[in-house]
Structure to design on (272 residues):
């Protein structure tokens, strides 16, 4: 696995654990109510599992597995993917911060969108038949 | 494909079918004023995201990720089976208890949901324990 993939997937596994934990707290509250404020964590449960776990795992796998370029860097511009990783994860954490700072939701989503656009720009050319060359 | 991967993937297909059925029931709810179906939405979502997507990922990851060691190329197969069992038992518990809890909450279904919560979380923990070391360069 390339290093970017390792970072994407390890981050996704951490989000999996945190997202599942929050989900367990909410489901337990539903079954045997103990603290209604746990429902405030529902947006974090969804964000951590959809963007943090599933989306990030797919991005990491795609970077690893997609056809490589025959000239230049095999997986394209590595720095762009690092920027994408940072923006996506910064965005997820900012979205989580909406509990304390409502504006963080908008800023977080913008960061996520920017990260994904950079990732797409860096990966588009790798969606091709297996023949080498650009 | 390893046997546990085949079980993960085939079960994920079943969950996808059940999720689509739940989605259909949700769409019919306003047409026929079926208030008893009000508890189905969380089931629909979790059948899709947990039963279908996550389970499919678990199966493929167990199959495809880099080798853990020469002696145990895919890590612990018994732990993978535990993940499979915990994931699906947890899902089944909430499939039964969540709709009942929505219309007629009681202690039995309440504790079933608590158990479902613990079991599903345990599935995630066992998966990460079995997978973390396989996320590596070579």
């Amino acid at each position: 696995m390339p290093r970017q993939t390792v970072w994407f997937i390890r981050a996704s596994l951490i989000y999996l654990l945190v997202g599942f934990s929050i989900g367990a707290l909410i489901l337990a509250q539903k079954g045997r109510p103990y603290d209604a404020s746990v429902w405030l964590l529902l947006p974090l449960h969804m964000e951590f599992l959809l963007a943090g776990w599933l989306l990030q795992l797919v991005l990491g796998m795609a970077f690893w597995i997609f056809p490589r370029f025959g000239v230049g860097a095999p997986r394209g511009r590595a720095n762009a993917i690092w920027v994408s990783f940072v923006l996506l994860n910064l965005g997820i954490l900012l979205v989580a911060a909406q509990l304390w700072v409502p504006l963080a939701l908008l800023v977080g989503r913008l960061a996520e969108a920017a990260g994904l656009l950079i990732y797409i720009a860096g990966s588009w050319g790798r969606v091709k038949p297996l023949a080498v060359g650009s | 494909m390893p046997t546990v991967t085949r079980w993960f993937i085939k079960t994920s297909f079943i969950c996808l079918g059940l999720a689509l059925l739940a989605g259909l029931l949700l769409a019919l709810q306003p047409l026929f004023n079926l208030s008893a179906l009000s508890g189905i939405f969380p089931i629909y979502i979790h059948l899709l995201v947990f039963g279908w997507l996550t389970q499919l990922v678990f199966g493929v990851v167990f199959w495809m990720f880099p080798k853990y060691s020469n002696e145990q190329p895919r890590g612990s197969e018994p732990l993978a089976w535990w993940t499979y069992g915990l994931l699906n038992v947890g899902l089944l518990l909430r499939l039964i208890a969540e709709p009942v809890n929505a219309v007629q909450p009681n202690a039995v279904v309440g504790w079933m949901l608590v158990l479902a919560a613990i079991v599903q979380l345990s599935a995630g923990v066992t998966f990460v324990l079995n997978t973390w070391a396989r996320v590596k360069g070579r």
Q: What stands out?
A: Residues 3-31 of chain A form the longest helix (29 residues). The mean pLDDT of chain A is 94.
